[in-house]
Amino acid sequence: MTAYRIQGATGEWEVVIGLEVHAQVTSSAKLFSGAATAFGAEPNTQVSLIDAAMPGMLPVPNRECIRQAVRTGIAINAQINKWSRFDRKNYFYADLPQGYQISQLYHPLVGEGSVEIAVDEKKPDETKTIGVERIHVEQDAGKLMHDQHPTMSYVDLNRSGVALMEIVSRPDMRSPAEAGAYLSKLRTILRYVGSCDGNMDQGSMRADVNVSVRRPGEPFGTRTETKNVNSVRFVMQAIEYEANRQVDVLEGGGKIVQETRLFDPDSGTTRSMRSKEDAHDYRYFPDPDLLPLELTDAFIEDCRASLPELPDAKRHRYETVLGLSSYNAGVLTAEVETARWFEKLLAESARRQGKSESDVARQASNWLTSELFGVLNKLGKNLEDSPVSPEAGAELLALVGDGTISGSIAKQVLEKMLETGDAPGSIVEREGLKQTTDTGAIEAAVDAVLAANADKVAQYKGGKEALFGFFVGQTMKAMQGKGNPQLVNQVLKDKLA
Where would I find the Asn/Gln amidotransferase domain in this sequence (predicted)? Predict the structure, then answer.
């Protein structure tokens, strides 16, 4: 794989990237209160006295939020710290009613782990391991709403106190593509685990992007942090712009300032927001209202036992046990919804055809990744919106498997299924689409094709055997795709012998 380099006026530069991903923990209640966390509620309707920082209110950790963070740590093979502690991170902002955020700086819940990525999905075996430094649990702040009044900003505290996992990578990424692959893979893992829904457009997963540049092989340069980038594509754009901006500054004789920046998705550029604070600026100290978290071995093992089969293990199983190609296995495991849909299709196909799952896996995976995905893309739909269920797909594949219809007719039936929502069997009956296995009808069609193409018959018999496919195609066309392909082939062989 060719290394990503920025070609400056004075030579090559290497980009160094680290991501701090904030993932909202899947939980019906907030980190330290019982207030609801549902997305899209009316402003300030999901705020407890604790979230609003009323005097005398004491936080109580939500066990489910801690459980989900531990499960996430186990999923990335990270160290789970049995002893961890909450700290207060002090800063003053209108949407932070306490005047501090409860976070974990010195003793996080989860220590070092790693995420394996494939930068090119067409080369899934070319992987790179990205280190994860830590996962700590913290509470989110509220939100300022600037579009509700001509001269004032309103404060919505619905998000205040919502549990976040901050997943901090090591500076191991060296290109926008690697950062995009890491963020995509991390999102996939979180969605498999069920610890975060990964809905970046709703703000439940967002990334702070740390970028610096250096001459290849030299020490790290000064980094900037671009805050709250909310899509994989925007993260890649922000890195590309910021790395090129830093190269221009350095080659112009300037210095990079350690600062916090914002990304503008409309222009694809970053702009300065404020100088970057260090830990001492936040005056961290242990939260006096919260005891340290102490996890038992039994709690950690329960978290481990609750995990589903994760994407890398699933992909490996699809390749080695089901015999799927690396590409198909990668496509089918990239999103948890796709994997679940495929497994329902697989189980139902095996049941209907009286075969093992490994016997029908290739037929099912090829149909899903090429046929169904193809028509859904044309309709602008995804698998979750598909009018065709896994059970209906399995019925269609069984009709092909037992010779009731041909593969080409199956495409027509699929289109009708999408249009009408009807079952494939009833469509085949109603439209008269069953394959013809009547040898007499096939022989008549073959005789007509051979008579109409006497010149090509002569060429075939003279040694131009590639014409056999032409005769098959013409016969199938004459029979409107309803001729049994095996019988058509056999009759043609006999007639041309």
Answer: 340-496
